[in-house]
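Supplementary material to the annual report.
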Amino acid sequence: MHYDRSNPHFFSVFVAFVVALLIIGFGVVIFGIDKIDRAKPGIAPIFILMGLPFIWVVTLDVIDRIVAMRHLARQLQGFDEDDMEYMVRILTDAATLSMVPHTRFETKWRKLIQFLNLDHFGTIASQALFQPSRKGRIRYFKQVARVAHLRFHEKPNGS
Amino acid sequence: MQAFIVSIVAGCLLPMLPIMAEYGLTDTVPGEMWSVTGAVYTAAVGIASRNQVVVTSSFFCSTICAVIYGVEKYVETNHTDMPYVEYGPIITQTVLYCFVWGYAIERFGRHCVEKRPYLEP
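Predicted assembly:
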């Protein structure tokens, strides 16, 4: 299976642009840029040209992270309780830095590993899934499992 | 959510305390105050960020704020008129406004979406 980022994510780009526009619009209102601009023309373009692209890029990055989480949840949808337990086990091990093949090398595992290693969103999800904090890993995985409507059992001792 | 709130308090509210104190006490914020806060705050946000765009633009904006601060001081001591100073406060306010929002949005992604703790090991 080949993963790439060829399909344009117009929706993400559009949502990020709307958010950026709202934030800049809010700034224009609270700073009274429109009033200042009438007295000293050129103020509003400075504000918009400096702020809009910056907020747009930062928002797009966060939207990418949300999309990555949803894509990961979609990959986990075929998983049963046994698979989830295995996932928790490898995530609990702080030394785990990437996804390792499951002993039962099934298609769903192969697809998950390919997604985490080759896809644009998979790489983002992988970074969050194998973050340095063990607590953070489990909380992220719990959130993904919730999105995928999967049951998640965390053992009391964390092992 | 807790990590995000801590992050907002530490990264957005605390650095703005001197500006708020200045405004509360004197009812006005001088241009140098905006520019010096902008220079330090943007550099700090850039250092703490993992987004390449934020890091790159923070160094650029921090330099601009520092230059504005320098020009404001020069104009103050030499009693000369410079049109550059006229736009100084609005540029530094824009930089501060954008970096506060950029920081908050990035931290939302880090703490609320990716569930990373505030203090990572």
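Chain B has a mean pLDDT of 87.
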